[in-house]
Amino acid sequence: MKEQGEDVISLSVGEPDFNTPENIRKAAFEAMESGKIGYTPASGLVQLKKTICEKLAKDNHLEYDVKNIVVSNGAKHSLFNSLQAICNPGDEVIVGVPYWVSYPNLIEMSDAIPVYVEMKECDGFKFTKTALENALTEKTKAIIINSPNNPTGTVFTKEDLQVIADFAVKNDLYVISDEIYEKLIYEGEHTSIASLGDKIKELTIVVNGMSKCYAMTGWRIGYSASSEKIASIMSNIQSHATSNPNTIAQYASIEGLKGPQDSVETMRKCFEERKNYIVKAINSIDGLSCRNPEGAFYVMVNIQNFTGKHYKEKQINNSFDFSEALLENEKVAVIPGIGFGQDGYIRLSYAASIEMIQKGIERIKKFVDYLN
């Protein structure tokens, strides 16, 4: 629609609307100019691995060696490697609903089976001990957690994570901990589940990367930290599948992790201002509601009051109908909750300028007022 010249407001994008910080861009240029453009070890530069170990020790209170680190082509690649390394055909992997859209497919690509556990809005979009225990079978191999969360913005507290850790240790389950949004937190603080004890650390594969917090989505650098055994398997898989991640991006990532962090805080503050606006605005619209997200740059909006209503000739039966009618009639692009396994919601991204957000909210209000 945008290509056809229509004035579409997109509140659907899952990447920062900032340029990569200048010091990181300069490091990439310097790497190219100095001829650092060849192959690296398949699992990443040793220098970058050492930098990641330093970061994990400083930020997450986790002690790892370079042999525990695998640098990959984005955090999604790290997740793929993780599941390929631990899953056998028929294994079950617990996934919270709503989930990031790729989790089920990544699980199925490893010949495993996703087992869905609802994380209810009334529970803060978090796991409960009872729900986890009800999902457990003799085939359960792992659980995927994501905090701060996409799409809900929920941040798991240390107490929340302890429940999951106790469950995993008791049942000898791997935990794949997707922590890609860790520096974008507005309430509370980030805790890595692997920091809660030696037993859970041995079972945890920590996944992180440069995309979200350093505005490096297209640079494609992710990484994992795990036991030496799992890291070795992941490294072998990657060696034969893709070889090393982009060399220039690896050198840039060293600067990103070691250099000044003020740009990250600048982005975080900007996202927080937008978050505060969008939450207040959504909750002021009759019929809509949302939680105040603690992290990331998304908000899940409850649209259940409009199920069965009509916009002109179109009946709104689900989140897809709502999103489609909103786009067709008011030119606002959002993501239907059904894509995250949770109908009755839409996901808005506030990785857009405040002017675009304000304009989008005005159009959403107009659309909802018609339904009311």
UniProtKB/TrEMBL annotation:
<dbReference type="InterPro" id="IPR004838">
    <property type="entry name" value="NHTrfase_class1_PyrdxlP-BS"/>
</dbReference>
<dbReference type="InterPro" id="IPR015421">
    <property type="entry name" value="PyrdxlP-dep_Trfase_major"/>
</dbReference>
<keyword id="KW-0032">Aminotransferase</keyword>
<feature type="domain" description="Aminotransferase class I/classII large">
    <location>
        <begin position="7"/>
        <end position="364"/>
    </location>
</feature>
<dbReference type="InterPro" id="IPR050596">
    <property type="entry name" value="AspAT/PAT-like"/>
</dbReference>
<dbReference type="GO" id="GO:0008483">
    <property type="term" value="F:transaminase activity"/>
</dbReference>
<comment type="similarity">
    <text>Belongs to the class-I pyridoxal-phosphate-dependent aminotransferase family.</text>
</comment>
<protein>
    <recommendedName>
        <fullName>Aminotransferase</fullName>
        <ecNumber>2.6.1.-</ecNumber>
    </recommendedName>
</protein>
<dbReference type="InterPro" id="IPR015424">
    <property type="entry name" value="PyrdxlP-dep_Trfase"/>
</dbReference>
<dbReference type="InterPro" id="IPR015422">
    <property type="entry name" value="PyrdxlP-dep_Trfase_small"/>
</dbReference>
<dbReference type="Pfam" id="PF00155">
    <property type="entry name" value="Aminotran_1_2"/>
</dbReference>
<keyword id="KW-0808">Transferase</keyword>
<dbReference type="InterPro" id="IPR004839">
    <property type="entry name" value="Aminotransferase_I/II_large"/>
</dbReference>
<dbReference type="GO" id="GO:0030170">
    <property type="term" value="F:pyridoxal phosphate binding"/>
</dbReference>
<dbReference type="GO" id="GO:0006520">
    <property type="term" value="P:amino acid metabolic process"/>
</dbReference>
<keyword id="KW-0663">Pyridoxal phosphate</keyword>
